[in-house]
Design goal:
The complex is a heterodimer of chains A (134) and B (313).
Chain A (H helix, E strand, L loop, with lengths): L1 E5 L3 H13 L3 E5 L2 H10 L6 E4 L22 H10 L8 E5 L5 H4 L5 E4 L4 H14 L1
Parallel strand pairs in A: 1-2, 1-3, 3-4, 4-5
Chain B lengths: L1 H76 L4 H21 L7 H70 L5 H20 L5 H19 L5 H14 L5 H9 L5 H18 L16 H12 L1
Helix pairs in contact in B: 1-2, 1-3, 1-5, 2-3, 2-4, 3-4, 4-5, 5-6, 6-8, 7-8, 7-9
The chains are: A alpha/beta (134), B mainly alpha (313).
């Protein structure tokens, strides 16, 4: 599977990235939401799965404004809405965050919601389930 | 005479295969029973050794994590500059690196190796004695022992690689911190990330059980974010504040207050600190007021601002 991880916490995600790669997935990681959006707009079908963080710092430029993202606490939600607007984008989205309270709000909008630090077995099960469905 | 010898030869040629066959049957039977007996012992030892290996890794990682947590909590609580804090943490992590060296797989049960050896010998003998049956039985045992060996090698390798990588990265950070006089908290938090990542990897590889250590892993990450608050990089500080907002506790109020009061901090960071204060304070309201911020009841931003100004003065 080709997986895109959109998460600013590179070091914290290292163990997960290593595990995904050892399971023969092709993994890219983007830390900046604007860049991630740009990449998905230019190639909406490049990835089979998106793993998205919710809390990410923003630079108040382009489409990600401080207040819209609640000082970065909801960057992922704004990004998710923008990704969904991409007409040809079909890849499933798994949200991985330490902000547990946002789970209710994201119900129905994403394929899976997982809490950080996520045991790899849970993430793997979610990926396998999505893979079977597709 | 000739007839006599012909008769003796005939009787020898008949009784020798019988005797050989009988002795082979006795020996073979004995070894078959013995190998079944060893098979049971092998299984028991395999289970015991697997548990020993995992328990050992789990205990050692838990001890290291607790030590780092205790030390970093103590370091963070002290009123010293971030460079002194990092220097103290560095010294501590240096000792952690030494402990990590010792988590080689020394606990791998010797008895398991003995069983393997005895087993291999038995399999060899049984194979020789019983031809087809022996080969079948032998191959089965061989396959079983090979699989077990592979499994142990996989687990051992996972631990050894993780530990070795962790050790290398800590050494690198220690060296970098030694070289740079202008030390920053980034080195301190980076070292915590290395250990946390190693711990998470061992949990992910199911070398150690997740339930027992997930809470510790959470605390370790939180500790890493607390150090990251002293980072020079604003994005890193912002990320740390977001995580403290999500999972911080009453002990974070003081540092959040200082960020909120710091006029040199950016608009985003000060507002994030404020969000954190607002959120965490709800969990920490005490009838007599919080011992550090002296807040009895806070409902809005201006109240907090006023209280923080009072507290700072």
């Amino acid at each position: 599977m080709r997986i895109l991880i959109i998460d600013d916490e590179v070091r914290r995600m290292q163990a997960t990235v290593d595990m995904l790669r050892s399971d023969h997935h092709i993994v890219d990681q983007i830390t900046n939401p604007s860049q991630a959006l740009q990449k998905l707009r230019s190639a909406p079908k490049q990835y089979d799965l998106i793993i998205l963080d919710v809390m990410m710092p923003i630079d108040n430029e382009n489409e990600f404004k401080v207040l819209d993202t609640d000082y970065g606490l909801r960057t992922g939600v704004l990004l998710l809405n923008k990704i969904k607007e991409i007409y040809t984008f079909t890849a499933p989205i798994v949200v991985l965050t330490a902000n547990y309270e946002i789970e209710e709000e994201l119900k129905g909008k994403v394929n899976h919601f997982l809490r950080k630090p996520v045991p790899y077995a849970q993430l793997k099960a979610a990926i396998d389930k999505l893979h079977t469905k597709s | 005479m000739k007839r006599f010898f012909q008769g003796r030869q005939k009787s020898i040629s008949l009784s020798f295969p019988m005797a050989l066959s009988l002795s082979l049957t006795i020996f073979g039977g004995f070894y078959i029973f013995k190998s079944i007996d060893y098979g049971g012992e092998f299984d028991t030892n395999r289970e015991k050794s697997r548990e020993l290996l995992r328990a050992s890794a789990q205990t050692q990682m838990a001890n290291i994590t607790k030590q780092i947590l205790n030390q970093s909590t103590a370091v963070l609580a002290q009123d010293t500059t971030s460079s002194v804090k990092v220097e103290r943490l560095r010294a501590h992590l240096d000792s952690v690196a030494k402990i990590l060296e010792q988590i080689a797989i020394t606990d791998r049960s010797n008895s398991l190796d003995n069983i393997f050896e005895r087993y291999s010998t038995l399999v060899g003998i049984v194979t020789l004695m019983f031809g087809g049956l022996g080969i079948f039985t032998g191959l089965q045992f061989y396959e079983q022992s090979r699989q077990t060996r592979e499994e142990f090698e996989h687990v051992s390798k996972a631990i050894a690689t993780t530990v070795s990588d962790t050790k290398k990265e800590i050494d690198l950070h220690v060296e970098q911190t030694k070289d740079e006089l202008n030390r920053t908290a980034e080195s301190g938090s980076a070292m915590i990330w290395v250990v946390a990542s190693a711990l998470e990897k061992l949990i992910n590889l199911e070398v150690i059980k997740e339930k027992e250590l997930t809470a510790l892993l959470n605390s370790l990450y939180l500790s890493g974010f607390r150090f990251q608050l002293y980072s020079k990089n604003e994005d890193e500080r912002s990320s740390a504040l977001q995580n403290i907002w999500a999972q911080g506790n009453c002990t974070d109020l003081k540092v959040l207050g200082s960020i909120w009061n710091d006029e040199n901090e950016s608009y985003i960071l000060r507002n994030l600190a404020w969000r954190g204060l607002e959120r965490i304070m709800k969990k920490c309201i005490h009838p007599d007021g919080h011992p550090e911020l002296k807040i009895s009841s806070v409902k809005n931003k201006s109240d907090i601002q006023e209280e923080l100004v009072l507290s700072a003065s």
